[in-house]
Amino acid sequence: MAKLFEDQSDDTQTRPGGKRGRAGRVPSSDDRVVGVAVNANLWRSFDYLWPTSLPGPAVGQRVRVSFGRGNRKVLGFVVDTNRRPGEHALKAVGEVIDAEPQFDDVLWQLGRWISGYYLTPLGMSLAAMIPSAVGRHAAKTEAVAYLQSHHADWPSTLGARQKRVLDELYEARKQGVEPVTVEAIRHASGCSRDSIHRLSRRKLIRVEARPVELPELTDAAGGDPFELNADQQAAMSGLSGKLSAGGFSVTLLHGVTGSGKTEVYVRAIRQVIAAGKQAILMVPEIALATQTLQRLLSRLPRGAGLHSGLTDAQRAFYYQQIRDGGADVVVGPRSAVFAPARSLGLIVVDEEHESSYKQDTAPPYHGRDTAVKRAQLAGVPIVLGSATPSLESMHNVEAGRYDLLSLPNRVRGLPMPRLEIVHLRKELTPGKVELLGATLTRRLAEVLDRGEQAILLMNRRGYASYVFCPSCKWMFECEHCSRPMIFHQATQMCICHYCQETSALPEHCPACSGKLLLFGLGIQRIEGELARKFPQAKVARMDSDTMTTPSQFRKVFEAFGSGELDILLGTQMVGKGLDFPRVSLVGVVSADTSLVIPDFRASERTFQLIVQVAGRAGRAELRGQVVVQTLHADEPAIQFAATHDYKSFAAWELPLRKEARLPPYSRLVRFVVRHEKLERAEAGADALAAALRPHLPPEVVFWGPDPAAIKRIRNKFRFQILLIAPRPGMIQKALAGRMERIVHDIPAEVLADAAPVSLA
Ligand code: ADP
Ligand code: ZN
Ligand code: ZN
User: Which of 578, 492, 570, 494 is nearest to 530 (CA)?
Assistant: First the structure.
């Protein structure tokens, strides 16, 4: 990594009788000592000498320091520019990455808020806010690859990842976007740099260097494709005043699927830009973001579209553009909330109910909630949009904290799709293992007859999921995680969905040598059933087994969009955001898989899933039809979804949450304690519980320690403590400044999460 400023003195320091400079020296009274928060799970900052040759110090500057006994070089942030020199020997800061801090006041405060609210050390929280390539000397060239072989010549001995590299390049050529940067291929295929170079030595691909290509900002010169309808206009006039006045406000835009929410976002963003300000538009992290992204960017001027396909250099370039005012609007997933827009005028969070806004690694921040906090700190309006708002946001409307705007109708007078709830047990032929009941089969036949398209949603992937011994009840589980190994028909292998461990299918039960049974009904099974029932139909399957690279997505979407395919069969990923005009049928093969997850949000998720996937049908002139198969037809979540009745769903579910004192009427904080040794994890959880108790007010309810729902992941045993507080911020306030002492003597690793979206 290239360095902006490197301190020379570090290398010239000597320690009596020792190696150069590594142990540091005792500061004198003229030395400048700074506090540095390092990017590690440690709740304190560390003192370092600040050599006079370095620019700064300034709070927020990124530095690299040698840390710990191994003198690892770690990323850190200056948090204090003037510490009093003590008696201990100190190391010097090794390198300054930014001459000036990347953070402005608001982002700095936001980083501190994330650390306090999500109970994650400051250094780790700040590190998540800046793409790592920012501030590096930009490389002038990059490696790109071309395909250099014919499909027929690909050796059958290639590994799955190398094969993916070739597939990816093959697709790129077909789409005329060859060559592809090696970085992007590595990202898409999971292949190492070395294996890619082995492909080039075998002359299957060609790798060469070319000058770095920086991405371009969008340029939407065209006018508006249509006038806003009356509902949209009413929503816009509700927003317009807030946008021009500025100041913090939160508006929940509840618009049914296909009501034209996007157009409202676009006009609001344009108004802000016209006033010389910048905007951030957040979209959920889904592979489909590409379709949404293209649609949005084509309507926005000087926009930067952040997505997972960017190279590090491109990401850093956009970051710089946003900070220097070259870009007016940023569209991206949850990390877009940290875009360094200096003259921010508006934040929009689309599909605000999406759980993918929550980051599951540290810092476990929620993109929507962090966006609301940023808007508050910056004093700007924020708009949260959804057809199925989270109950948290709805509760905030009821409490008078958020304003509500509604788009109750679809655009152009289109009707909402008709929903049929069918009871699976009544629909299936006894003795036959089928997943498509009579109604859904009939509807599919009708759609195919008319030459229209259908989307089928199935929650579970794989075929014949579990491996099980009926005589002694042995179940094949992963060696490293307490989760079942899932058998996949296509590869004939068993795989753990948590750590990707793979294994062959055992021939006999290892416990009793009995015959093993495969059970569980998955998406590949429906594929087979469709092939039997509708041999003429062209079906594409879309799940994380078949869609491993972005170009595979593009390919399927293009084929579906152009009408080459009749049926799109997929997991949750087909349920969100798609806008295909010829789709007149949506089938939910089983609405129940999400109801059996033991989670207090299960019925909220089921409701959202059905309404959202139903919203993919009938978005143009064709009337939409939705068939939902279930074993629990009486579930209120399913009944309310059948009539697209969000209001009644909220009115039914909210009082239940209130009675149970669950969010949004309380706040959860969860601690996970993990260790490779079971005893250490358990003892650690007990010690943590004991250390937490004295600090927490008596109203905080304490659950645990208990083994976590998934007892072991990647060889680490996990225990959890769940805290429930009646008021927001109560636990955080009680623990502020005390985390270091609390975790100090815990014999295992402690990870915290506030407002967890899943309790797995
Ligand atoms: P939502 O996000 O609410 O589901 P979209 O914003 O995707 O809905 O809009 C649905 C479709 O309606 C899009 O194809 C969009 O171009 C179109 N549309 C939006 N506003 C109007 C309007 N005022 N008149 C006609 N069509 C519109
Ligand atoms: Zn595993
Ligand atoms: Zn057995």
Answer: 570
